[in-house]
Design a protein that fits this description.
This protein has about 350 residues and is an alpha/beta fold. It has helices at about 5-20, 60-65, 85-95, 130-145, 160-170, 170-175, 205-210, 230-235, 245, 250-260, 300-310, 320-325, and strands spanning about 80-85, 110-115, 150, 180, 190-195, 200-205, 215-220, 220-225, 230, 265-275, 285-295, 340. The chain has one domain (about 75-340): LarA, N-terminal domain (Rossmann fold). The protein has 12 helices and 12 strands.
């Protein structure tokens, strides 16, 4: 038996044992993209900048080095932000800045890509669902990196998965890129322990997500009436069954879920962002087109940067605070190495 097959089998056994001894719970929330679509031009909030303080004494070299953002131990930036191009180019530049998709996907890997398909009655223009070309390009990059299989899935908030995949435009782009759509099957939700959880100790998580070699999280940045924003951590509600249960202590429970799923890479689609009326939208006047993609292996960092697009501080979002307290990632943008890429320049 090949190593990868044996590893998947052992993972499956572990999940089934968990299902026997656990309790119960939890669900989530073409043509080439036209450039002439009119959306409301709202001001773009600038990312958080560190407060400048005039020093009384010149810092030593050691103090100065400690104050400057540094790269990760492997030399890559914590975060990459690409702006001003077509969705496919934005994705490619952001992922390349992090070291390329080969850093996250190895030959033969079984990859799950998790966009936000949300509802089956909105096209991508309304910014309730992840941009189809963003998703398609991620699939293409995974296959170029040698992935053995790339599936795209979400458990939508409104409607069934197949109709949401089609109406959002995601299915067309994924199939064109060589990927597969995973129809949601309720029998695949398995009760799963969350060892590091502070509140959500167990829930029903989609089995294929647990068994995948790599999970790539692809939220759209949008307003949410309860969570304030739907970003990376909030997008993971689409891998569980009992969504309403999460709302009792949403911030902490999202962090708990993230500690169990923990995507290898989070790519935030901010090509169009939904400023109001989230999560389902419905008015083009609520949409702002800013042609931006944010990518990071740190889901907390990705969410922290994305929050600034809406004029918020990372600590304004309860799930970022909970994720930070659990050690799931970083939220202080001033201490991170952030690579900004002007694609259209």
């Amino acid at each position: 038996m090949e190593n990868k097959t044996r590893r998947a089998f052992l993972q499956w056994i572990a999940i089934q044992m968990s299902a026997v001894f656990g309790g119960s719970l939890l669900a989530s929330c073409g043509k080439q993209e036209p450039h002439s679509l009119q959306t409301t031009a709202l001001p773009i909030a600038k990312p958080i900048q560190p407060t400048e303080v005039e020093p009384t004494d010149a810092p030593t070299q050691t103090e100065q080095a400690a104050a400057e953002p540094s790269a990760t131990p492997n030399g890559h930036p914590h975060l990459a932000v690409s702006r001003g191009g077509e969705p496919e180019a934005l994705v490619r530049h952001a992922v390349a800045a992090l070291g390329g998709m080969m850093r996250f996907v190895s030959t033969g890997d079984d990859v799950i890509v998790k966009p936000n398909a949300c509802v089956d009655y909105r096209t991508y223009e309304y910014a309730a669902t992840t941009n189809p070309w963003v998703v398609g390009e991620i699939v293409r990059l995974c296959l170029e990196a040698g992935a053995g299989r790339v599936r795209v899935m979400d458990f939508p908030f409104g409607g069934d998965s197949e109709s949401a995949y089609w109406s959002s435009g995601i299915q067309e782009q994924v199939l064109a890129a060589g990927g597969e759509m995973e129809p949601i099957r309720f029998l695949k939700f398995v009760e799963t322990e969350i060892p590091d959880a502070l509140d959500l100790k167990k829930c029903q998580i989609y089995e294929d997500v647990l068994l995948a070699d790599v999970v790539i999280n692809v939220p759209i940045a949008k307003h949410h009436s309860l969570a304030r924003l739907t970003l990376g951590m909030k997008n993971l509600m689409g891998v569980i069954r009992d969504r309403p249960y999460m709302h009792g202590n949403l911030g902490q429970r999202l962090a708990d879920l993230t500690s169990r799923v923990h995507p290898a890479l989070t790519i935030v689609d901010a090509v169009r962002i939904l400023q109001r009326s989230g999560p389902t939208g419905g008015r083009l006047s609520d949409v702002q087109k800013i042609d931006t993609v944010i990518a990071s292996p740190d889901i907390v960092a990705a969410d922290s940067y994305a929050s600034t697009l809406f004029g918020l501080q990372p600590t304004d979002l309860s799930y970022i605070v909970s994720g930070l307290n659990m050690g799931l990632g970083q939220a202080d943008l001033a201490t991170m190495k952030i690579e900004e890429i002007a694609v259209g320049a």
